[in-house]
Amino acid sequence: MNRHISGQYDSELESVRLGFMGMGGRVERQVQTATRAFVTHDVEAAATVREGEDEINQLERVLDDRCIHIIARRQPTAGDLRLLITIMKGCIDLERIGDEAEKIARMAEKISHLPLPPDQYADVQHMRELVIRMVADTLDAFARLDLESARSVISADGEVDTMFRSIDESLSQELHMHADSVMQSLNTIWTARALERIGDHAKNICEHTVYLIEGTDVRHLDRGDGGTLE
Amino acid sequence: MNRHISGQYDSELESVRLGFMGMGGRVERQVQTATRAFVTHDVEAAATVREGEDEINQLERVLDDRCIHIIARRQPTAGDLRLLITIMKGCIDLERIGDEAEKIARMAEKISHLPLPPDQYADVQHMRELVIRMVADTLDAFARLDLESARSVISADGEVDTMFRSIDESLSQELHMHADSVMQSLNTIWTARALERIGDHAKNICEHTVYLIEGTDVRHLDRGDGGTLE
Question: Model pTM?
Answer without folding.
Answer: 0.80
